[in-house]
Amino acid sequence: MIEKLFSIIIGFLLGAFSGFIPGIHSNTISAILMETNLDPSFLSFVIMAGLGSHTLISFVPAIFFGVPEDSTYISVLPGQKLVLEGNGLSAIKLVIISSLISIFLSLCLFPIVLILFPISFNIISPYLIFILLFASVFMILSEKEIKKIIFASAIFILAGILGILTINAPIREPLFPIFTGLFAFSTLIATLWSKPKIPKQKDEEIEFNFWVPLLAGIVLGFIADLFPGIATPAQLAVFASPLLLACPKKYLVFTSSIAVSHIIFAFASLETIGKARVGALSYVSQLIEPSLNNLFPLMFGFVISISLSAIFLLFIYKKLGKLFEINTQHLYIALILYLSILIIVISGPLGIATLVAGTAIGSLPLFLGTKRVHVMGVIIIPSILLLI
Fold first, then answer.
1. 196: region left, alpha or beta (phi > 0 left; psi from -120 to 50 alpha)
2. Which of 284, 324, 322 is nearest to 40 (CA)?
3. Which of 5, 56, 119, 360 is the most interior residue, by most CB within 10 Å?
């Protein structure tokens, strides 16, 4: 028992580090750990605990600086809007509350999900391409004005072309330069250009009344695990954006609910159909027999780590608002340089080319006055092509 608790603490610390530092994915930490000679059971707990703390804490750089990864880029737009309104601390608290509630409800639903997984896959699979097409058209038409619909369509297609070219190119970690360009760099450069004043971040009491988006997120977290590589949590959240982006708090609850619930349900996926829907679980399945007897303790190790992360963030979240009391111009420039160097190291020259293209496309909505969500064509169009 003591050994397991020790492994959870180590995993929590590693995940907290990778969550706070932009560009370091939890899968990177897992891959490094797999090269060690640690006991397989011990290592499995470290990996899952690392995933737990990383999942929650990685929302912080996504919200405050617009630096996303593949599980948090859906939170960038509403998070940044709340920061500009002085509600960045409220955004962090909402992520914490909704994540904890989602974990509890997902655990309650886990026995039912074990039964539903094989049945649901067979029912939904033939119709997925039509669902994606309908959702894409719905998202573009949400602009309402003809001119903006044309602009949105062009942005959607350009982003899709970028996604097709990049995913098929010999680039290490291709999603990193794509999302950094589309979301982080386009936002950071626009911020440096316009020099907006970041207001003092208020610490307001939150009355949680976002049950509908939270429950919707849990449902989509389940669906995300049915179709790996095609319906990721982030992709599914994009389709709800026309309905939820008007209320950033609802959207943030929705996205954090998906991010957490889909990991819980991934344990059911591994048990019922033998497929790991999460990178960390894929590594774990190489270390231990993926039976319920082995997976249940790991799942609760993941839950304990997220709970520790919630306590940690509640302890320090007030200090996060003070980041903007320093010279933010220097902070944004340093962040741009850091991410550029990291992309050169990880993804090479093609990664830089992807970054430049992504930044250009990510800036178009800012200049054309459309919703930025249309840049998600970078994921949606390749996904549709996979189904044809």
1. beta
2. 284
3. 56
Region of 63 please: left (phi>0), alpha (psi -120 to 50) or beta. Answer: alpha
d(CA 364, CA 24) in angstroms, rounded, equals: 27
CA angle 356, 359, 363 (to 5 degrees): 145
Cβ-based neighbours of 173, under 8 Å, separated by 6 or more:
25, 346, 347, 351
DSSP reduced 3-state for 172: coil
pLDDT in tens, the chain (388 residues): 788 889 999 999 999 988 887 656 676 678 778 878 888 899 999 999 999 999 999 888 777 766 444 444 444 567 777 877 777 788 889 999 999 999 999 999 999 998 988 888 778 777 778 877 887 888 888 787 899 999 999 999 999 999 999 888 888 878 778 888 887 788 778 767 765 566 777 777 778 888 988 998 898 888 877 765 444 555 566 656 655 656 788 888 888 898 899 899 999 888 887 777 787 888 888 888 888 888 899 999 999 999 999 999 988 877 776 665 555 677 778 878 888 888 898 888 999 999 999 999 988 988 888 887 788 888 888 888 887 7
Tokens of 15: 């995940």
- Taking the C-alpha atoms of residue 373 and residue 375, their distance in angstroms, rounded to an integer, is 5
